[in-house]
Amino acid sequence: MIQTECQKGILVVDDDPAFVDYVRYILRDLGFLNVLSASGGYEAIEILKTKGASIDAVVTDLVMSEGTGVELILYLKKAHPRKVGAIVVTGYFVSFEAKSPLGDYQVPMFEKPFSRKPEDQAKRSSHGLPFGETILDVLSAS
Questions:
Q1: Distance of CA 33 to CAs 12, 30, 36, 48, 55, Å?
Q2: Domains contained in the chain, number
Q3: Residue 1 within any structural domain of the chain
C-alpha cells in the first residue's frame, strides 16, 4: 500500500537480483516512484554519470563481484559530495564496522536480511544514526 508519493530518485545496488527486486518492491510500495537498480558498483557508477542529477540516494551492498559498495561510495563522495546520500545494506555488518575502509565517512548501515519492520532495522543500524532510525527514515530525509 502506498503511503505517500515521493519523487526522490533511489538507486538500489546489489548483485543478488532477488534482493534488488525485494528492495525495489518495498520502496515503490512505500511511495518512492523513481527507483533504479544496478547489479554492481561499476554499473551504478555509469548510471550516476548519466542520471546522477535525478538520483538522491543509493542503497548498496558492500561485497559485489562487479565493483564493491566501498568503491561506489568513494565515487559518490568525490563526484557528488553533497547531492547523493549513501546507505549500506550488507551481510558483512560486524566485520565492516570493526575496520571501515571508508575512513571518516559516516555511512548509515543496515544488516541483511533487510526488514520492513522498524524495530528490526533499529537493532541492526549504526554509523551515526540516532537509535531507532530506520532505512526509510534515512531515505525520506535524503
A1: 13, 9, 10, 18, 12
A2: 1
A3: no
Task: Supply the pTM of this predicted model.
Answer: 0.76
| CA 135 to mean position of chain CA atoms | 8
d(Cα 125, Cα 51) in Å, to the nearest integer? Answer: 29
> What's the Cα-to-Cα distance from 103 to each of 25, 34, 83, 96, 109, rounded to whole Å?
32, 31, 20, 11, 14
CATH number of the domain that residue 128 is part of: 3.40.50.2300
**Each residue's pLDDT tens digit, 18-56:** 999 988 888 888 788 899 999 999 999 999 999 988 898
- Name the residue range of residue 110's domain: 6-141
Eight-state DSSP code of residue 61:
-
